[in-house]
Amino acid sequence: MSSTFLDISSALDSRMAGITTHPIAWENTVYVPVVGSAYLRPSILPVSSEQSGLGDSGLDEHIGIYQVDVYSESGKGRRGAELDADDVADHFKRGTSLTYNGVVVRLGDTSRSAGIIDGDRFVISVSINYSAHVAPR
Question: Kind of pairing, strands 103-112 and 121-134?
Fold first, then answer.
């Protein structure tokens, strides 16, 4: 039984766990933000997998976006959120290879969204492109 999806997300989440400047609200866990404090929320946004090699044994390419939402207090300007977004982007440097359970995930370029107000928070999303080539199912 393969665990490709789990291995890819675990590789990315392990890298994310290295950011210790703010708490992390992991997917499918209960997280109650502290009023006035910043936090980060990662999500995996996979794209359809495609065969990247010839024949029945050609590798499958899994690509997607690892999105990290940077939550900061609204009404305080964008500077703090932008600095935190830069920290996240710097931590996921293009060309870095992450390995988990034998699956190698290669990081691509990063970008950020426009900031939005979400309740009492100002949010900037940092998008990290990734790809992984794995044995076919």
Answer: antiparallel
Tell me the backbone φ, ψ of residue 4, rounded to 5 degrees.
Answer: -55, -50
Q: Which residue has the tokens 């492109």?
A: 129
Residue 19 carries which side chain, given as an amino acid letter? I
Q: For residue 23, is pLDDT > 70? A: yes
Where do the domains of the chain lie?
A: 4-134
Place of tokens 């997300």: 9
- Residue labelled with tokens 């060309």: 95
Q: If pLDDT is split at 50, 70 and 90, which confidence band does 88 have?
A: very high
Q: Model's pTM, two decimal places?
A: 0.92
Class of domain 4-134: alpha beta
